[in-house]
Amino acid sequence: MEPIIEKHIQVKDRKIALTVYQNKGPVIIVVHGFQAHRKMEMVASMAEKVHKSGCTAVTWDMSGHGDSEGSFSEFTITHAIEELNAVIADAKANFPGRKIGIVGNSQGGMVAMLAASKDATIKAVVLHAPVSDFQDAIQVAGAKMIQAMGMEGKTTPEALIQGWKARGAIIYPDSHNNLVPLNYSFYEDGMRHSVMAAARRINAPVLLIHGKNDETVPLAQSLALAKTLKLNRKSFRQVPNGLHEFTGSQLEEYTEAASAFLQAHLGH
To answer: Which domain holds residue 195?
Structure first.
């Protein structure tokens, strides 16, 4: 295997941190989720798995996350799409002629679908517990916040969203678990993106994997997405007892299934 390198690319006013696991095969870009970063276990494990299979893997931090520049407070889905498009362009420039696949986790799955729907050069897509209904994901996050605050029966996710709008920001943990403001523009921007409409425009083969006990992105989202994508049982896998984050044997099985799928559709 060839060397692993760390680098940055410029996307408008922010530098985006990348790790490139170089090899001779197709390029697999791994997209992390909200509040996550490229060095977290699920992202790094996937990159290492496809790297060992002969692929070049690229992981990166969204702006305001991990080691990338930008403010978490000002982060939006639109920013993430801009950054993913720049990462794809960088891969094409540095590895010309190679096939490209994308793996998206959670909110990263949403970003991956929105990008893949407009880029026919993406030849395979793996989605792990992707956000396909942004408003529902925010409602679930709000319900978890209410429970954590011991406010059950005293407020609602809808009321939290209205308070978020009125104040312009809420306090939320970033990718380093620091409590910082998150602007209401994150919600407004996310609501502008129709993931299901984007999914209908994806021509690349898709593997969808979701834990049945996911406490962050409800399984119901992927049940609806699988119908939109017209996936069969082989390409939509529900993991018994799986939570939002996979560890141990579940993580091993996930990375193995994803790697096999990518090899089958991208070759070497």
So the answer is: 4-266
Q: Which of 44, 80, 11 is nearest to 251 (CA)?
A: 44
Predicted local confidence at residue 268, as pLDDT: 67
Q: How many CB atoms are closer than 10 A to CB 199? A: 24
| C-alpha Rg value of the chain to the nearest Å | 18
**Domain count for the chain:** 1
Give the residue carrying structure tokens 């407020």. 155
3-state secondary structure of 50: helix
Residue 174 maps to which CATH number? 3.40.50.1820
Nearest to 61 by CA among 118, 124, 15: 15
Model pTM greater than 0.85?
yes
Strand order in the sheet with 14-21: 4-11, 14-21, 56-60, 27-31, 100-105, 122-128, 206-211, 236-239
pLDDT score, position 1: 57
